[in-house]
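Ligand: zinc ion. Inputs:
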Amino acid sequence: MPLFEFVCSECGQPFEELVRSSNAISEVSCPECGSPKVSKKISTFASRLSGGVSSSGFSAASCAPGGA
Ligand SMILES: [Zn+2]
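Predicted complex:
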């Protein structure tokens, strides 16, 4: 499910919207003020997934020599 993060250009309200197709993105409007002027951000799901796997602090922390 493509969950996109948007930010309203009018009131600055951030919100998330499930978008089935790229065409539907242009039909997204702000739930706060109803303005169609919204900016799409990178999907939180995708960014969390890739970022969590590649740049997770888990392995780095366990491999750290330790300050104490
Ligand atoms: Zn708005």
